[in-house]
Amino acid sequence: MSLRYLLCCPLLLLLTGCSTLSAINVSAFWPWNWFTSSVVVSDQGVGQLTATTPLSEQAIRDALPGNYRLRRGMKSVNGNIEPYYEALKEGQVMMTIEGHSGTITRITTTDSAVKTAGGVRIGTPFSTLYRRAFGHCRKENHSTTMAIVCQAEGSQHISYVFSGEWHGPQGLLPPDDSLQNWPVSQIIWQR
User: Fold this and answer.
1) Which terminal residue of the chain, N or C, has fewer Cβ atoms less than 10 Å from its own Cβ?
2) pLDDT at 143
3) How far is 66 from 157, CA to CA, in rounded Å?
4) What one-character DSSP code corresponds to residue 168?
5) Strand, helix or coil at 117?
């Protein structure tokens, strides 16, 4: 009988939400979340983060799984100061959450545990998704590395950033044969 109490007491404390455990996301403890990511990029958003999620620390924290730490920043957009949030894992930025007028408008993820509903994740090669860039992709202008952005097939809200090496003219898309092994380096959801 006492063994039963020893096993049940820690579980009861966790479930009652005592004040020292209030910052823990209990869903992270469920066994089915141990080995799989619960974060999926869809046309609605990234996991529980959608266009209706307020751009506030508490709302974003509530929508993210417990394995992310949130950090707030500010940036200037067209002369206006706007907040953004970074979701970190082990000190690395895995998501950047941006918004306008108080709601989320864009989420960029580099987390390899996050995938699209179709199974695309960081590292997926260009050749798996596209035969050619024309009609799907554009050159990324603000990148410090060579990158192209391609619209996800059948989606108006999801795009992929592919990064790689190419030593051709600056403003042109690399040829399709050069792109074949370029991996997805970012997945972007945009309202």
Assistant:
1) N
2) 56
3) 25
4) S
5) coil
